[in-house]
Amino acid sequence: MGVNSYLAHAPGYVDNEGPKIVTGRFVHEDSHTLARSLATGGYDGLKRALEQSPTSIHDIVRDATLLGRGGAGFPAGVKWGFCPPGVWPRYLVVNGDESEPGTYKDRLLMQRDPHQLIEGSLIACYALGLSQCFLYVRGEMALAQERIAIALNEAYDAGLVGTNILGTDLSVDIVLHWGAGAYIVGEETALIESLEGNRGMPRLKPPFFPAAIGLYGKPTIVNNVETLANLPWIINNGAAAYKAFGSETSPGTRMFAVSGHVKRPGVYEVEHGTTTFRELLYGDNYCQGIRAGHELKMFIPGGGSAPWFFPEQLDLPLEARPVGAAGSMLGSGAIVVMDETTDAVKACLRVVRFFARESCGKCTPCREGTSWEETILQRIHDGLGRPGDIDMLLDIADNISPGPYPTAADEANGLDAVPFPPKQTTICPLGPSSVAPITSAIRRFRHEFEAKITARELIPVEATGP
Ligand SMILES: Cc1cc2nc3c(=O)[nH]c(=O)nc-3n(C[C@H](O)[C@H](O)[C@H](O)COP(=O)(O)O)c2cc1C
Ligand code: SF4
Question: Do 115 and 39 meet the contact criterion of CB atoms below 8 Å apart?
Fold first, then answer.
């Protein structure tokens, strides 16, 4: 299936009941146009921002505790404060590369409300005192690119982007940059390399983070699409109104993309931090439960990189801290649900294959290790596994993301030895991302791996290769 065909069939937005901070305009067919945006309060947040000082806007965003939605959940207002004073020019880079397995919420924000993203980016530029913004959109997202391009042209023509915006001293240019379709370019330093015209490979950090030394060696704030899309509402309504939704440490709402074996998959805007996985996956207002006649086996709570969860974690709230304490992450806001018909080895292989193919190859443990992981999982899946394969998988995992990992004896004793957050011997977290499905699947479903390996004994040795 071609990429565009896949995107056309991917689940879309579900208009559930609840507060709408970033998806409010999605109910309109023409939500992507400037006319609809202006008719529904579009650019009012920018106008309000321009009536206040940049420092006041930064303070509002800091007070709102707007957590980054790209994966790490770092507060935007705090990150903005890391730009070293007096160093110019500085840049805003909007991360629209969204390629994490299961994640498709930024795509909807870019397709359905590009003006909200442009407005949010302008508010950030104003608060940061900068005049150049780059909007980096994943290569395969043709419709998102097209709509953003049209929206930018509309906004330039209307004096909302460019020189002396709305007749003020604010001048900001926004450049739309189309990626070439690499997952690793979602990592912020690889994205910066790509923008500079180099191969999209991550830079070592620490010591330098983009806020200090980023694009063209200058201070650069990289923010996720959804993070910036929150800004118009926050400036229009204030930090206190934002914090009235969600929990104390995870305020506001958050978009979650749910896929897999639920009755109603799709993207939902839900209250952050207070809604539980059970409510989201089983609630009438949301996914309405597992497909008829089936039971939940496992779910990935935060995109392909996240360690797997099981039915006993359903009552955790959608909040970073408790999810982290339970050994996983909310990551990119993507939940992949698998019922009891799912082959754990095959599911694990499918996710690991993605990371093996998307490894940029810059560092050895990831470049070599991820393809070894794929090879071993493939042969186990094909019924050609060898007796030492589970140990070898865990050994490779340990070399990419040092454990300790659970042995069969640990499991028998009920020990849970998978460390979280993961350590890494690699330059960036992609290597450890390939380890998460392996340790999750072996920890819980070792018997499924063993059953496939035992089946090999029934196959003549000459048919199994070396
Ligand atoms: C392998 C990898 C892929 C990533 N992909 C994305 C992505 O597609 N979109 C995104 O916003 N952040 C992605 N991130 C996180 C970014 O590096 C960065 O933290 C984020 O864009 C910062 O925005 P935020 O603070 O608003 O969340 C990725 C990180 C890694 C390690
Ligand atoms: S961990 Fe993988 S993707 Fe990241 S820099 Fe190393 S080789 Fe590239």
Answer: no
Whole-number Å distance between alpha carbons of 66 and 230: 8
Query: Which ligand sits closest to the CA of 221?
Result: 1
Q: Tell me which residue range forms the domain holding 196.
A: 20-243
Which tokens is 298 given?
A: 């496992």
The one-letter amino acid code at 337 reads: V
Nearest atom within ligand 1 for CA of residue 74: 25
- Cβ of 202 less than 6 Å from ligand 2: yes
Same domain? 278 vs 332 = yes
Q: Are residues 319 and 367 in the same domain?
A: no
Q: Are residues 226 and 266 in the same domain?
A: no
Model confidence pLDDT, tens digit, residues 345-384:
999 999 999 999 999 999 999 999 999 999 999 999 999 9
Question: Residue 330 belongs to a domain with what CATH number?
Answer: 3.10.20.600
DSSP state of 308: P
pLDDT, tens digit (0-9, with 9 covering 90-100), for 107-156: 999 999 999 999 999 999 999 999 999 999 999 999 999 999 999 999 99
| Domain boundary residue, one of 224, 243, 262 | 243
10 pLDDT higher than 80? no
Shared-domain flag, residues 201 and 293: no
The pLDDT-based confidence of 206 (bands split at 50, 70, 90) is: confident
Is-above-0.70 flag for pTM? yes
Cβ 360 under 6 angstroms from ligand 2: yes
Distance 336 CA to ligand 1 centre (A): 19
Of residues 389, 385, 408, the one with CA closest to residue 455: 385
